[in-house]
Amino acid sequence: MIFKRLREDIESIRTRDPAAHSRLEVLLCYPGLHAVTFHRVSHWCWTRGARVLGRFISHVGRLFTGIEIHPGAIVGPRLFIDHGTGVVIGETAVIGADVTLYHGVTLGGTSLHSGKRHPTLDDGVIVGSGAQVLGPITVGKGARIGANAVVLTDVPPGVTMVGIPARMVMRRSKDTEFCAYGLPGESLPDPVARAIDSLRGQVAGLIERVTELETELHGHPTLGCARLPHLVGGEQTGPEPGPDHTRPVGKSPDQPALERETGS
Ligand SMILES: CC(C)(COP(=O)(O)OP(=O)(O)OC[C@H]1O[C@@H](n2cnc3c(N)ncnc32)[C@H](O)[C@@H]1OP(=O)(O)O)[C@@H](O)C(=O)NCCC(=O)NCCS
């Protein structure tokens, strides 16, 4: 039974971590695997009344791995804790099957009463590095928690939550296949292209607004998109319209100078 579980854990780590090259490597070098194995023993002691022994085994596991799993926590099959250092899992936490946690994750409590005070993670949840999931809340099946998010409320199944406090950014597609680091493998966005796209959108919006304002002011657009077709993807149609914009503001006949208004 123990060996069957261990083999299952090793296989699940290999499928979820592109950096895992062999079973032996996983067995020897993955603190997450060691911590879960320590937890199985400490939980066995805990549920049979040997509470101090359970705590002690959990403590030894923490010394070796940097991962603290309270022996009272209920951990489902194939939990993968990647890197692991700094992970804390509280006494009344419940973790479903095939959950992935990265380093620095806390499944913590927010109150001092002795009942259920830690989160429940349903099957297939992925929690990014440094995220804090706090209180007796439930994170729905297949949900993803972004790195460094602080989650304080229930999370519906299949959604992605980011930020502090965490807010929903998207619903997950029907494709529930595991994505390492919570990211879809083949379509990683090019951040520079995304930034340029976003800037182009903003420039187009600004030009539209300037055109509207100029039309209101002068009865016709004087700048518009015509001068910046390469930025907004428009075509230059005809000669550049409007007066000379090198003239200082306030010197136009239809927009009296400040000096004239103030008499200075
Ligand atoms: C949350 C996560 C799963 C979302 O990935 P995704 O589906 O590819 O989503 P995107 O990158 O398209 O981001 C969607 C939006 O959320 C924002 N976002 C993503 N991750 C965020 C985070 N951790 N904190 C704050 N905002 C975040 C993005 O800026 C984007 O906002 P926008 O729509 O305003 O541009 C991913 O960003 C994440 O944090 N994964 C954990 C990775 C990890 O811990 N790795 C450790 C490896 S050792």
From TrEMBL:
Pathway: Amino-acid biosynthesis; L-cysteine biosynthesis; L-cysteine from L-serine: step 1/2
Pfam family, one: SATase_N
Gene3D superfamilies in the cross-refs: Hexapeptide repeat proteins, serine acetyltransferase, domain 1
Cellular compartments annotated: Cytoplasm
Entry GO MF terms: serine O-acetyltransferase activity
Domain named Serine acetyltransferase N-terminal: residues: 2-36
Start and end residues of each stretch annotated as Disordered: 221-264
Domain of life assignment: Bacteria
EC code: 2.3.1.30
Principal localisation: cytoplasm
Catalysed transformations (reactions): L-serine + acetyl-CoA = O-acetyl-L-serine + CoA
Enzyme kind, highest EC tier: transferase
InterPro entries: Hexapep, Hexapep_transf_CS, LbH_SAT, Ser_AcTrfase_N, Ser_AcTrfase_N_sf, Ser_O-AcTrfase, Serine_acetyltransferase, Trimer_LpxA-like_sf
Gene Ontology biological process: cysteine biosynthetic process from serine
GO cellular component: cytoplasm
Keywords: Acyltransferase, Amino-acid biosynthesis, Cysteine biosynthesis, Cytoplasm, Repeat, Transferase
Family: Belongs to the transferase hexapeptide repeat family.
This protein's name: Serine acetyltransferase
Organism in which the protein naturally occurs: Magnetospirillum fulvum (Rhodospirillum fulvum)
Organism phylogeny: Bacteria, Pseudomonadati, Pseudomonadota, Alphaproteobacteria, Rhodospirillales
